[in-house]
Amino acid sequence: AISQVIGRQILDSRGNPSVEVDVVLADGSSGRAAVPSGASTGANEAVELRDGDPRRFHGRGVSNAVAAVNGEVADAVTGLDAEEQALIDTTMIDLDGTKEKGRLGANAILGVSLAVAKAAAAAHRQPLYRYVGGAGARLLPVPMMNIINGGAHADNPLDFQEFMIAPVGAPTFSEAVRMGSEVFHTLRRELAGAGHSTNVGDEGGFAPDFADADEALTFVVRAIEKSGYRPGTDLAVCLDPASSEFFHDGAYVYAGEKRTRAVDEHIDYLLELAGRYPITSIEDPMAEDDFTGWKRLTARAGDRLQLVGDDVFCTDADRLTSGIEERYANAILVKVNQIGTLTETLRTVETAHRAGYRVVMSHRSGETEDTTIADLAVATGCGQIKTGSLSRSDRTAKYNQLLRIEEELGRTARYAGAV
Ligand code: PGA
Ligand code: ZN
């Protein structure tokens, strides 16, 4: 049973406050979880409770969320059996009493939810991926590695937020990491050679002053080739334009390119890029409230492109169900803090899998050293993870955890790209 719940304020990778929670059980087992934070957030995400006191952390303190953990939440869950994940999560949801977890804060609730799972896993002397996923959990995900950052994650003119490489042709996860790292360093050399900045953005990808997606994609493909790999076969290219960020008054406003594209022009442009480059997946190709655009793109390209809904679903099983019924997207990005509990996260994954939608486990642009999502990717067998570039410890921590998991699974491990 849970004997102690301890919340504290820590810093995330952008130097902003975040919530960390320790859960201690009566047998002495314990679990720790830290909560991530987005920058290009969806409008319907669970509420990240911030203090709003301008004298402390520019208003971004989380002392109220931490107080909720140490007070109301601790009182409600102490004494409960840590194996009762659904009961504990439901208890917190009911205690909060709002639809968006705005009273206690989804950051408070998620920290406790994940720390409970980790404590229960520790009590079972099992790694988290096995405790959550069972004995069959042995599929290592293909990583989508974000090697060029733009949009809300960098100070360059790039309108699209993420340019990623996915080592689909790697035989194992560790080989996928090697390939990604090699391409990342080749890209650095190519950028430097062309007189571009090699400074990195929030997710550890380079953030040069590229004018448009074409320029970024040209460098990415060249870096794959110059590393000795075949674009599309060894490493595929994936995009996250994060289109909600530049959808205004019914059109896509490309500020960096200084031009506006109507919905159909935006779709044509994305498909043209996907035709010219080895692009296999586009996340948030359409804005979260552009449902007609989503349906049109899915009808045109859903059979040959992975179309991943991030902002449009916000990891919410009900929103996903609408998408399945209305036929938009064919995959979902899963971010634990968009919904706020492990139980709801797993339900969303299940809903997706039942409908044949693919699932990409994901970090946030503001992260911590917490590696829970690496374990959840293996636990759910979802086959894909998005956790940033090959630099910055907040990103590589997840890759490193997956390397450990692969090692531990030994010859029973499988890599999603090779199956
Ligand atoms: P965020 O970005 O964490 O800043 O929301 C990640 C994404 O859009 O996928
Ligand atoms: Zn996204």
Describe this entry's structure for a reader:
Pfam families: Enolase_C (PF00113), Enolase_N (PF03952). By secondary structure, the protein is α/β, with parallel strands linked by helices. Helices cover 39% and strands 18% of the residues. The strands form four sheets. Strands 5-6-7-11-12-13-14-15 form an eight-stranded mixed β-barrel, surrounded by five helices. A three-stranded antiparallel sheet has the order 1-2-3. The longest helix is centred in the middle third of the chain and has 21 residues, at 173-193. The radius of gyration is 21 Å and the shape is globular. The mean pLDDT is 98. It binds 2-phosphoglycolic acid (PGA) and zinc ion (ZN). The site of zinc ion (ZN) has 6 residues, from loops.
Can you summarize this structure?
One of its GO terms (cellular component) is extracellular region. With 419 residues, the protein is an alpha/beta fold.
Characteristic key phrases:
419 residues; alpha/beta; 8-stranded mixed beta barrel; 3-stranded antiparallel sheet; 13 helices; 39% helix; 18% strand; binds 2-phosphoglycolic acid
Radius of gyration: 21 Å
One letter per element, helices H and strands E, the order comes to: EEEHHHHEEEHHEEEEHEHEHEHHEHEHE
Which structural category do the helix and sheet elements fall into? alpha/beta
Q: How many strand units?
A: 16
Determine the mean pLDDT: 98
Percent of residues in β-strands:
15-25%
The CA-CA distance between the termini, in Å, is: 40 Å
Sheet with most strands: strand arrangement:
5-6-7-11-12-13-14-15
Largest sheet: 8 strands, mixed, barrel
Number of discrete helical segments: 13
Work out the helicity level: 25-40%
Overall geometric form: globular
- Low-pLDDT ranges: none
The ligands bound in this entry are:
2-phosphoglycolic acid, zinc ion
